[in-house]
Amino acid sequence: MNSRRVIFASAALAAGLVLGSAAGFAASAEKGKQLFLKNGCWQCHGERGQGGVAGRTLAPNPLPFEALQNFVRTTNRAMPPYREQILSNDDLADIYAYLQSIPKGPDPKSIPLLNQ
Amino acid sequence: MARKGSGQKESGPNAKGANVSRRNFMAGVAVAGAATAVSPQDAAVAAPVADLNDAPARSPSALRPDARMAAAETGVPKELAKSQGPDGSDFMVDVIKTLNIDYVCSNPASSFRALHESLIDHGGNKKPEFITCTHEESSVAMGHGYFKATGKPLLMLCHGTVGLQHATMAIYNAWCDRVPVICIGGTDIDAAYRAPGVPTFHSALDINAIVRDFTKWDDQPVSLQHFAQSMVRAYKIAMTPPHEPVMIALDLGLQQEPMREHERESIYIPKYVPTAPPQGDTGAVREAARLLANAERPVIVADRAARTPNGVRLLVELAETLQAPVVDQRGRMNMPNTHYLNQTGRGPALIANADVVIGLELSDYWATVNGFVDNGLDGIGINEAKTKPGAKLIGINSTPLVTKSNYQDFQRFQVLDVDMVGDAEATLPALIDAVKAALPNDRKAALEKRGEALKKAYADGRERTRAAAAVAWDASPISTARLSMEIYGQIKDLDFSLVSSSGNVSGWPNRLWRMEHHHSWLGSSGGYGVGYGAPAAIGAALGNRDIGGRFSVNIQSDGDLMYAPGVLWTAARHKIPILSVMHNNRGYHQEVMHVQRLANRRNRVAALGMDRSPIGTSIENPDIDFANLAKSMGYWTAGPIKDPDQLGPTIKKAVEVVKAGEPALIDVWTQPR
């Protein structure tokens, strides 16, 4: 990715935070889903970002993009960092758009199996 | 090896009408040879002293054998004649029967053929009954699961070389999980008279060497009296906490030959009398009680603390006496998850804030109070203390009594303030009494207040867990929370026993099922050797079947089942009722992240090849049809199920099959974890 596009993406994402949606800046939830699978995010966080013993819940209601981006780039926790060389800002924005697109699940109180 | 020179009459090979055993035949050869040959000493004296300068060639160092000696050394030994007196292996079965062992799990082999024959014919195939296994790893793991369901050890028979090599991983799991399995390996020690070819490939000088680093004791008896003592000793050592596997090498000659004449008069079977488990030192118990009684934020951490149902009761009593939270590391079912003092979900926060931590039979105390993060560019990870400075650490653990050097299951070294070597369950009564005596009268209100706060935290935690389970409830592949709760919906009114590890499904059963009994949850493998799950679950189901009234349920990982799927046949063959629901995520997900981690560290995109996860970590293309696999071995089966709404009705049908006494397996495509 060239530097011009990085600047654009960063600016767009920053603006997206203000507007509450990175997907509004050409980030693609559909492409993001493919990237979520291709880059192995689903292996720990589940295909819908539901989380589990290996990774925290990402969706619904994902972290603000800036916080997510900062964590993905620099994490020193159990998750290995994904630097720009292997996951571009554009791709990360698409992944974020996918996480935002995941609908909220049913109310646990409405699920009989969770209330036995 | 031992039989030569026994009290039996020795006869030469040419003696007419001699009714000799293989070993006596050999002894006869030795005697006959001595009568005609010249000893090396005599030969040396008789030979002229050679002038080294004149002698054209050296004399031979020994005389050439005559025709009869050559025939004896190179010929094929005679077939075994009918034995006189009781058969050795019949006596061995008599010994085994005194130990009240229910089953012997085994893949048949020539090196224990005599014991095998005696078990089924002399012993009537009862106590123990022969369970046909298709892999030695399955034999051991079945014994592993059986013990955790019943508290009784099983016998495992195998070839001492190739069979034992198959069995080693399962023995290591049992070692790490503190579980007794009585292992016997057949071997034919007598190199001159054992059959050549395959049986000789399958013999070794010291078969036990391969497992000596992870068995508590081993022996190689050389007489039947020795066997009787070894067998009872092995059982006693295995069944004394800390429980561990033991190993006996059993010579085929000893099995096949008749009892020696002198043994017929004097042989005896030692009586098994259980050994009392070791307890923590009285002074150390008092000091631990003083620290706990005066602590503001004590935390109890339990791993393999509850060896028996009484251990659960004792742990609850200690926790209630202190109104202290319990973090259950789930090596066993230690603390009912319906009790408000079970605060496992808050473990890291509680330990970080604790002023006193007591660890009961922890497999890794260091990792309980420290953190290791497998991250960082240097590749050596990040180490972090989890506790506050000044926090007091107490430990009760029997494992140091059996610590060895080679395998590193003793984990990192952790300094403790009060360190008791002893069995936790055996020490708890004294500790509870000491805590009650040490609690100041004015602490009562503070303890009540602590208990009320923990009740609220428990209720809040349950709500958070339910909310987390609801996320991706309708996902396909099916979420592990949905999988777990659909199973629970069909078995919740039964006296169930979860006979498999639930770690691979994010621990949902431990978090949301009602688990109040020691048998509700049997822990995991111990050594994390993949392939434990299926056979251990079936072994536990065998025990639950015999106890009666317990419903065995197994959440079965795909990778684990593929190690030795033949154990499914064993379950069908022996009518072992068990419900197995596949957690078929089509990958080795523990390993996925290791490859991903290294790729990220090196700024490379991990290659997926034709799969969804890094090359070498997936189990797809082609997808395994587990339903047909199990069906081919006699199971009732269904699946693969990918629609979560189909899961409940299918499990309901399978439950009825299992209640009727048959095994059933449902293949389910699931989310990774």
Give the strand order of the largest sheet of chain B, numbering strands 1, 2, ... along the chain: 2-1-3-4-6-5
User: What characterizes the major β-sheet of chain B?
Assistant: 6 strands, parallel
Give the SSE order of chain A as H and E letters: HHHHH
The CATH architecture classification of the largest domain in chain B is 3-Layer(aba) Sandwich
Q: Label the overall shape of chain A.
A: globular
Count structural domains of chain A. Answer: 1
Query: How many extended strands of chain B?
Result: 18
Characterize the biggest β-sheet of chain A.
none
Radius of gyration from the alpha-carbon trace of chain B, in angstroms: 30 Å
CATH class of chain A: Mainly Alpha
Number of strands of chain A: 0
Distance between the termini of chain B: 52 Å
Overall pLDDT level of chain A: 82
Helical content of chain A (DSSP H or I, runs of 4+)? 40-55%
Number of helices of chain B: 25
Description:
- The complex is a heterodimer of chains A (116) and B (673).
- Chain A has helices spanning 3-19, 29-38, 41-45, 65-74, 89-101.
- Chain A is mainly alpha-helical and 116 residues long.
- With 673 residues, chain B is an alpha/beta fold.
- In chain B, 39% of the residues lie in helices and 13% in strands.
- Chain B is globular.
- The chains are: A mainly alpha (116), B alpha/beta (673).
- Chain A binds chain B through residues 37-40, 42-44, 46-55, 57, 59-60, 75-83, 85-86, 105-108, 111-116, and chain B through 373-376, 382, 466-475, 477, 479-482, 485-486, 488-489, 492, 503, 506-507, 512, 587, 589, 592-593, 596-597, 599-601, 603-606, 608, 612-614, 671-673.
Provide a short characterization of the protein structure.
The complex is a heterodimer of chains A (116) and B (673). Chain A is mainly α.
List the helices and strands and how they pair.
The complex is a heterodimer of chains A (116) and B (673).
Chain A: H1 3-19, H2 29-38, H3 41-45, H4 65-74, H5 89-101
Chain B: H1 22-36, H2 40-46, H3 67-74, H4 88-97, E1 103-106, H5 113-122, E2 129-132, H6 136-150, E3 155-159, H7 162-176, E4 182-187, H8 198-201, E5 217-219, H9 224-238, E6 246-251, H10 252-256, H11 261-266, H12 282-293, E7 298-302, H13 309-322, E8 326-328, H14 347-353, E9 356-360, H15 365-369, E10 370-373, E11 382-385, E12 392-397, E13 418-421, H16 424-438, H17 444-470, H18 480-491, E14 495-498, H19 508-512, H20 533-547, E15 550-557, H21 558-561, H22 567-573, E16 579-583, H23 589-601, H24 626-631, E17 636-641, H25 647-659, E18 664-668
Parallel strand pairs in B: 1-2, 1-3, 3-4, 4-6, 5-6, 7-8, 7-9, 9-12, 12-13, 14-15, 15-16, 16-18, 17-18
Antiparallel strand pairs in B: 10-11
